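Ticket opened by: R.M.
Priority: normal
Category: complex prediction / small molecule

The reporter submitted a protein together with N-carbamoyl-L-aspartate and asked that the result be attached to this ticket for the collaborator who will pick it up next week. Submitted input follows.
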Amino acid sequence: MRHLLTVADLDADDLTHLLDLAENFAEVQRRDIKKVPALRGKTIVNAFFEDSTRTRTSFDLAARRLSADVVTFSAGSSAVNKGESLRDTVETISAMGVDAIVVRHASSGVPHQLTAWTDASVINAGDGWHQHPTQALLDCFTIRTHLGGLEGKRIAICGDVNHSRVARSNVDAFTKLGAEVVLVGPQSLMPASLAGWPVKVESNFDAVLPDLDVVYLLRIQNERLSSGLIPSLREYRELYGLTAARLGRLGPESLIMHPGPMNRGVEIDPEAAEDPRAVVLDQVASGVPVRMAVLYQLVGVGPIGKIAEAVA
Ligand code: NCD
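Result attached by the on-call engineer:
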């Protein structure tokens, strides 16, 4: 594996292998000194052309905890503002001798395009509505940690599926690891065609809640309102929000997940975000070991056989 562009490039064994690696790195996170020399001498550039809190910070920490040199580049403070093209920007970064470029961009397909312009490994940190593979991995890691695995688990992904790279990556990863996925939300926020999606669709949130192992809420972007896709945020919350009133329908061992940033009071009530079944901050915490695993796999010198050495 040279790049990580989409979950489609990974099979169940690849996913499991990365999650196993992440477990080794999760152990490093519990140490007093959370650093191993595995990527000493390697250089990683985080190239963020779109806003991010969680993803950028955790890629940054992941690289540092592997002892790589890391530079974080935000489009807002770069020569992109002077009109420099994406290609020139990437070739400029590459010319400095980097081993991996972690890229986030508002346009689908940019990470793939970058692979033609650089010899570095390219890692997709979210491209348009397309893919967010490390989010899928960290969500699988979180579920595995809490429920022991994904095989046979029932997971509902709720909300704005059509505009969500998280939904596309997660459906693929969850189902490859044996989970059953149901999409919940208004027709106007579902993809026009679900051909090839191994999912069921349900519009009655209350009906599915009691059978779920995981309820995964997606962020409702305000711009959906202005584009007329939902009549009002109040109505959305009533039909599809995980409200305080709905919490009683969810099983005692079920997990409440959200990739963040949350719109409290829209897709998730504050009571649900703070419920003991909510693992939103565990998802954030999983981001670091999972991204360490991805960087180690792509940039590291010795893959699985060397892991004991890497975390020693
Ligand atoms: C998501 C993203 O940016 O794709 N956030 C994240 O990376 N945790 C989801 C979102 O913005 O809705």
